[in-house]
Amino acid sequence: MDDRELLQVLQKNPENGMRLVMKEYTGLCYYIVKQKLADFSAEEIEECVSDVFLAFYHQYTAIDLERGSIKGFLAVLSRRKAVDRWRKLAGKETLPLQEEITAADTLEQQEDRQILLDAVRALGDPDGKILLLKYYFGYPSKMIAEVYGLQENTVNQKIRRSLAKVKAILEGGVCHEG
Hints:
By secondary structure, this protein is mostly helical. The chain has helices at residues 3-12, 14-36, 42-59, 70-89, 107-121, 127-136, 141-148, 152-170.
């Protein structure tokens, strides 16, 4: 079943639609949440995943399939809910993350995202891909190290250097290998 059909099921029969969404994407959401909340109990992780699906139920009408997918929408929700919960559980001062994902992102936000993505792509391989795996997909450094056959501390060093290079690119500076 593709995303368009799944959204139609959600509109016609929300209970059945949510059952299908949960069947298809619980593993993904659980994986993302667990990466962020690894230091907390399984109950906290499961409760956070439940919060993800509740938020999805209230916001699925905002999904624009021309700009993204249900999988991407749920991945973003999972990361946001997990970070919010981590801040709450860790006793950190919370800065409210945007609670809703709206289909009407401003043109300025879209341009900012594109500029950032272009700067990351300018790094080339593997540095650009390592940054995407770390910050977009939420992979831990250890997993990235396994993918590239590197030591975890080498991956962390590449991430630090790559972030500095992206900053230099965004500030209009020239990026030299150091």
